[in-house]
Write a structure and sequence with these properties.
eight-stranded parallel beta barrel; binds succinic acid; alpha/beta; 14 strands
Length: 304
């Protein structure tokens, strides 16, 4: 086993650095820059049962140390994904984690079922998108509804199931425990934090949907805190996301309890960020004489 190889819910990844959903598409654009199989894995843009146009523009805005998005789950639908995007990702030898979303628990289940016979590595159940009126975070901020959708998908899904949690829940550890009790194999967190900006001149919100999801370095300390709280609460692996931009951020997130990390907004500034993070973690493991990077997971020496 190499020093960066990690195991999450029975799936082996060559390193713990994954592309975060919605920031890497299906890898085609980044694939023009480098070999995308160098990443531990790719969480692809959310796929739904039917094609979706997403929200009207403007749906992206820059913020201090971050960005707001309100894309609204635009995608071509799961059948298109299976027929066109997955074959590309397979040819590129990427480990594929499919982020899925739906308006109802039945829709989530139907998408998961369509993926059963494919060779994807894992499903990431997106119950945390803050930019849609039905589904998404509406499921993820309430323990009972998060448990219900996880149960329904788990019953029909043959793939390892990672549930992506919302930082907009009052108690994210409670949601993590609820989905664990319904058979989730892992959790990933955090999705974006609901935010808003207003243009002074027009007095209009900068996003057409008024609010959107905040990501980037601004949310990193919130993400570290939430990963730490969830790590202490559940036994299943935790995958950390939220503002990771350097190998130091990745190592910090792992010390908080993350078995792997997702890199997202950082790639809009530097598309090579995940590769630099992988190299940085490898050098760090060598300097610290670690047999495997997993040795640092949850190793924070918290005060009593
Ligand atoms: C979006 O498509 O609006 C973002 C997806 C997400 O936050 O999960």
């Amino acid at each position: 086993m190499s020093e960066l190889q990690v195991n999450i819910a029975g799936v082996s990844f060559k390193n713990p650095v994954l592309a975060a959903s919605g920031t890497f598409g299906f890898g085609r654009e980044y694939g023009r820059l480098y070999d995308i199989s160098k990443l531990g894995g790719i969480c692809c843009k959310a796929v739904t049962l039917e094609e979706r146009q997403g929200n009207p523009p403007p749906r992206i805005a820059e913020t201090p140390s971050g960005m707001l998005n309100s894309v609204g789950l635009q995608n071509m639908g799961v059948d298109y994904f299976l027929g066109s995007e997955l074959p590309f990702m397979r040819r590129a030898k990427a480990a594929v984690i499919v982020n899925i979303a739906g308006r109802t628990a039945e829709e989530y289940r139907a998408v998961a079922e369509k993926l059963n016979d494919s060779d994807i590595a894992m499903i990431e159940l997106n119950i945390s998108c803050p930019n849609v009126k039905e589904g998404g975070a509406a499921f993820g901020v309430n323990a009972a509804s998060a448990a219900n959708v996880t149960r329904q998908v788990r019953r029909h899904c043959k793939k390892p199931l990672m549930v992506k949690l919302s930082p907009n829940a009052a108690n994210i550890a409670e949601i993590a425990a609820a989905v664990e009790s319904e058979g989730a194999d892992a959790v990933s967190l955090i999705n974006t934090i609901t935010g808003m900006r207003i243009d002074l001149k027009s007095r209009r919100p900068v996003l057409h949907t008024n609010t959107g999801g905040l990501s980037g370095p601004a949310v990193f300390p919130v993400a570290v805190r939430m990963v730490w709280e969830v790590y202490k609460r559940v036994k299943i692996p935790v995958v950390g996301a939220g503002g990771i931009a350097s190998w130091q951020d990745a190592a910090e997130m792992m010390m908080a309890g993350a078995s792997a990390v997702q890199v997202g907004s950082a790639m809009f500034l530097d598309p090579y960020a995940p590769l630099k993070i992988i190299d940085g973690l490898r050098d760090y493991a060598a300097r610290e004489k670690l047999q495997n990077i997993s040795e640092i997971v949850g190793s924070v020496k918290a005060y009593e």
